[in-house]
Amino acid sequence: xxARKRISAEKRKEALKTMYFAKLQNVPTSPxxxxxxxxxxxxxxxxxxxxxxxxSSKEAxxxxxxxxxxxxxxxxxxxxxxxEDGELFVTKIFVDCGPTLKRMRPAAKGRGYRIRKxxxxxxxxxxxxxxxxxxx
Length: 136
Description:
This protein is α+β, with helices and mostly antiparallel strands. It contains 5 helices and 5 strands, in the order αβαααββββα. Strands 1-5-2 form a 3-stranded antiparallel sheet. Strands 3-4 form a two-stranded antiparallel sheet. The longest helix has 20 residues, at 60-79.
């Protein structure tokens, strides 16, 4: 690894130490379905987002709820205190495509139809409101 690349990698690692996030990888649902759930809670206060996810009828919302609880726990562990009501917000959440499993389904007249079983990766960032104001 070259010096320039190593320096930028170290800067990126240092920046991640001040961020509070959680990742969920290789989720066996399509990214499109997961993005619908991610859009519901983007920018919301954490307790309100947990309520929205708990009562959502979508299957992906249970996974995102667990991920949000993990991100809250990461924030509490790095700050050595419990999160208070109205303090934490979902600052960023994004869904990336994961690996796609390609399968064949038998069809009429000796043909085969392709089936793509998609997966995704979800990354969720939480932070306090006053930190967001300082950055903007």
